[in-house]
């Protein structure tokens, strides 16, 4: 059981107590979707949940005790502070700064130690049950991308395309979007986080569509770049460079590979095409209960890929006022390489509208 593994980890670290914050962590460990804070102490765990979510948490949680507090940080502070002692060493994964400060002030000599790795080393390696949900989340994102391809045409507005995507994903079983979708057309496709506006899509434009679904709390993430009409030579060239970087990076992904090496391979392809200055973000990130989580595929990453990681491979080229191209799939690291969890086509033919 996950919680037992964590409790063991807390003991091995020599911590007197451990505080777990963040709704994804709480869900991962207790099945509660109501947030709050989980306190581990003397081999036992208690979930402190906001009063309004208490009935739901009682229904969801089977692995530990559930206690409630009046909503707000004041209530939470009162609830947990009675369980900490002066001079103890208390680990945490993440804490709101204000709560961190209050705990520091209230307990003379209490040592608050960041020990997020205790949880991340579990969450970053997905179990088979989690993978089933992530495969489904990936499939829903593919359906959303299909809806995007159908909705995209000259004159339609970005938000109308986004609406079709959301409609299809939720109709097919998603409980929500994994994040605010991006439908960024024309000059806006050069903004990696362009979001959605009321801009109309015009003939000849690049359209970056970056979407994901949430299925039973697990997220997916996919990006395709469409071209409305026949691509110009420059658009075609940029598209093919990004696609090559994406594919070459994907070929390298397997257990034991340093995450920064994959980033490096993609970056080299793009630099050799003299577009290096326009690849302005890292190659990818882990996905799971959150859409951005470890491991990180970047130039400075210290992460080494393991079987069971789910990561994105998403190089991009963004040329101001001209437009951008990003191609992203979410993949599972298997024993020998990857299993694609998003599978929408990505050849140039497939993205020409
Ligand atoms: Mn992504």
Principal-axis shape? elongated
What's the number of extended β-strand segments? 19
- Widest sheet: strand order? 4-3-2-1-5-6
* Helix percentage range: 25-40%
> Architecture of the largest domain, according to CATH?
Alpha-Beta Complex
Mean pLDDT: 96
Q: What is the gyration radius calculated from CA atoms?
A: 22 Å
Name of the CATH superfamily of the largest domain: Creatinase/methionine aminopeptidase superfamily
Characterize the main sheet: 6 strands, mixed
CATH class identity of the largest domain: Alpha Beta
Brief overview, please?
This protein has helices at 2-12, 23-30, 54-60, 73-81, 97-106, 117-123, 128-151, 158-171, 233-252, 259-272, 348-351, and strands spanning 17-21, 37-41, 44-50, 65-69, 89-92, 111-114, 176-177, 182-185, 206-211, 213-215, 218-219, 222-227, 284-286, 293-297, 310-313, 316-319, 323-326, 329-333, 338-340.
Folded structure, characterized:
The structure is a single chain. With 353 residues, this protein is an alpha+beta fold. Helix content is 36%, strand content 23%. The chain has eleven helices and 19 strands. Strands 4-3-2-1-5-6 form a six-stranded mixed sheet. It has a three-stranded antiparallel sheet with strand order 7-10-11. Helix 7 (128-151) crosses helix 8 (158-171) and helix 9 (233-252) runs antiparallel to helix 10 (259-272). It binds manganese (II) ion. Manganese (II) ion binds at residues 221, 312, 314, 328.
């Amino acid at each position: 059981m996950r919680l037992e593994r964590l409790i063991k980890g807390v003991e091995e670290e020599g911590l007197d107590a451990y505080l777990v914050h963040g709704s994804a962590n709480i869900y991962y460990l207790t099945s509660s979707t109501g947030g709050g804070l989980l306190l581990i102490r003397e081999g036992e765990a208690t979930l402190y949940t906001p009063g309004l979510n208490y009935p739901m948490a009682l229904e969801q949680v089977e692995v530990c005790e559930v206690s409630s507090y009046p909503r707000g940080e004041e209530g939470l502070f009162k609830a947990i502070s009675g369980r900490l002692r002066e001079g103890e060493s208390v680990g945490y994964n993440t804490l709101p700064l204000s709560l961190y400060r209050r705990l520091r002030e209230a307990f003379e000599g209490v040592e608050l130690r960041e020990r997020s790795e205790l949880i991340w080393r579990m969450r970053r390696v997905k179990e088979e049950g989690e993978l089933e949900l992530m495969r489904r989340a990936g499939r829903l994102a593919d359906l959303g991308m299909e809806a995007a391809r159908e909705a995209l045409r000259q004159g339609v507005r970005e938000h109308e395309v986004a609406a079709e995507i959301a409609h299809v994903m939720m109709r097919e079983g998603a409980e929500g979007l994994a994040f605010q979708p991006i439908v960024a057309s024309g000059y806006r496709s050069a903004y990696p986080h362009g979001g959605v506006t009321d801009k109309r899509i015009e003939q000849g434009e690049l359209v970056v569509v970056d979407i994901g679904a949430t299925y039973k709390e697990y997220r997916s993430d996919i990006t395709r770049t469409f071209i409305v009409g026949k691509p110009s030579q420059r658009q075609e060239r940029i598209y093919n460079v990004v696609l090559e970087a994406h594919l070459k990076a994907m070929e390298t992904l397997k257990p034991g590979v340093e995450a920064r090496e994959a980033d490096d391979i993609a970056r080299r392809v793009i630099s050799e095409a003299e577009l290096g200055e326009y690849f302005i973000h890292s190659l990818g990130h882990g996905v799971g209960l959150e859409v951005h989580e470890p491991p990180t595929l970047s130039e400075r990453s210290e992460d080494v890929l393991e079987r069971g990681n789910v990561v994105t491979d998403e190089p991009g080229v963004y040329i101001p006022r001209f437009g951008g191209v990003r191609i992203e799939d979410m993949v599972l690291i298997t024993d020998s390489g990857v299993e694609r969890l998003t599978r929408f086509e990505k050849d140039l033919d497939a993205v020409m509208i």
